[in-house]
Specification:
Number of helices: 2
Strand order of the largest sheet: 11-20-19-18-16
Distance between the termini: 117 Å
Structural class: mainly beta
Strand content: 35-45%
Order of helices and strands: HEEEEEEEEEEEEEEEEHEEEE
Radius of gyration: 36 Å
Helix content: 10-25%
Shape: rod-shaped
Number of domains: 2
């Protein structure tokens, strides 16, 4: 009887040891289980979007468990953009149902679009994508710029008007070049560095009604340009709209010509007052252009 009891005790002890070992194995497996993880990669996204339109953004979300949450946000990077204006730019996905997969394509699965009103503020914004998978969470960001917005108060500088500009037939007795920076006429044998505007006439061929630059300036004719409210930004935008040329021809009274001065990032807006074939002194090689300009 004693022997049987001992065997029972021994068997019981073995069973307890096996159970504890099995429990330890299970616990060890739990300890080694991979933690929930999610990563966001925003790729192929545009650097610039136009106000008043919707632009598709793309990216991949990878997780080791299915997604449980996905949100999007827009914030302003430029401190000049008022906080109240940021709401005019939104990010949203047409597909709001989270698929039972571990990889999500923001373009094909979500159709993620950034939209803005036409009167949005120009500047740099930030798209933020927030995703959760299980108990893990992560964010991805992408900065982009809005152009052509009309909503914010402009911080551009109004240009200052200069008056009394005159260019004559360069083949005649009067000066046929002009320095817009120094506000003075330049003789034909003067320094090219000062010749922002140069008449293109040839002796005996009549007045050309054409201008070029001898110091790297380029031109754009800008019909309809708002000369009264000319600013550095409006001049730059009109110039960029082109077409950009190295000389302007067939100049007529009332035209607006924008010049990018001397190859720099500075602009002048020229308002043609008169363009005649007979102005100037002398008896031959006549012709004269008069103008005001803002710079």
């Amino acid at each position: 009887m004693t022997f049987i009891k001992k065997n029972h005790y021994l068997l019981f002890a073995v069973l307890i040891a096996v159970a504890m070992s099995f429990t330890a194995c299970l616990t060890g497996d739990d300890d080694e289980k991979e933690a929930d993880n999610v990563t966001i990669t925003l790729t192929g996204n545009p650097d610039t979007v136009l106000a008043g339109a919707s632009t598709a953004f793309s990216g991949i979300i990878d997780a080791n468990v299915p997604l449980t949450g996905l949100t999007f946000g827009i914030s302003a990077v430029d401190t000049t953009i008022p906080a109240a204006e940021v709401a005019k730019v939104t990010a949203a996905a047409k597909n709001v149902l989270l698929p039972d997969t571990k990889t999500w394509d923001l373009r094909t699965d979500a159709d993620l679009l950034v939209s803005s009103y036409a009167n949005s503020c120009n500047g740099t914004y930030r798209l933020t994508v927030n995703a959760t998978a299980g108990i893990a969470a992560n964010s991805g960001i992408f900065d982009f710029t809005i152009k052509n917005g009309t909503g914010c108060i402009s911080t551009s500088k109004l240009l200052t008007e200069k008056t009394g500009g005159i260019i004559n037939n360069i083949a005649g007795p009067d000066t046929g070049a002009y320095d817009l920076m120094a506000q003075e006429r330049v003789a034909a044998n003067g320094l090219d560095a000062k010749k922002d505007l140069v008449d293109m006439s040839v002796a005996g061929a009549g007045f050309s009604l054409s201008l070029r630059s001898a110091n790297g300036g380029t031109f754009v004719k800008a019909p309809g340009f708002d000369y009264a409210n000319a600013s550095d930004e409006s001049a730059e935008a009109a110039f960029a709209a082109g077409p950009i040329v190295t000389q302007v021809t067939n100049i007529t009274a009332g035209e607006i010509i924008i010049i990018k001065i001397r190859g720099t990032e500075n602009y002048a807006v020229i308002q043609i007052l008169t363009a005649t074939l007979t102005g100037g002194s002398g008896t031959s090689n006549l012709g004269q252009i008069t103008f005001n300009w803002k710079i």
